[in-house]
Amino acid sequence: MSEVTTLVTPDMEERKGVWGGETTSYPISQSDIRKWAIAIYWGETPPRLFWDEEYAKTTKWGGIVAPEDFNPFAWTIRTTQMAPAGAQPGQKPEKGGNILNGGMVDTFGVRMRPGDVITARMRLSHWEEREGRHGLMLYSYSHLQWTNQNGEVVKDRMSTLIRY
Questions:
Q1: Which of 7, 31, 37, 59 would disulfide-bridge 138, Cβ 3.0–4.6 Å?
Q2: Do residues 24 and 121 make contact, with C-beta atoms less than 8 angstroms apart?
Q3: The domain 1-27+96-164: what is its CATH number?
Q4: Which tens digits make up the pLDDT trace of 88-130?
């Protein structure tokens, strides 16, 4: 068996830095924000900023805004089938076929508000290869960006995927 010298594929080389297709959310409703806040603060009353219009008007936001972790794509109907990652039960993975989630870092921009329509896009930012306990490991970094209808950045996420 020959030694693998790189896990970087020609497809990765082609996609590096190139934004992929865009996905657009449905318009965000005040009800969506309220239900999300109730869910994430379950057991407690959510901050009034997320559900009380009169109170929210008195804040620096001037109205209701969504919690920063609000996901306007949570109710989207999936129209494509996702391929399973890695080896299937009973199969031995090829080199690079083992996949680990290396984590993610979110940076937030403007707050989402009722009526906003969010557009998401993603690109392969960069990668690095390292030798580890399991041999050659590939760390790939994907950049996800959400913008609102005004082109303002709502969220940037850098995700790390580790293959070995």
A1: 7
A2: no
A3: 3.10.129.10
A4: 666 666 777 788 999 999 999 999 999 999 999 999 999 999 9
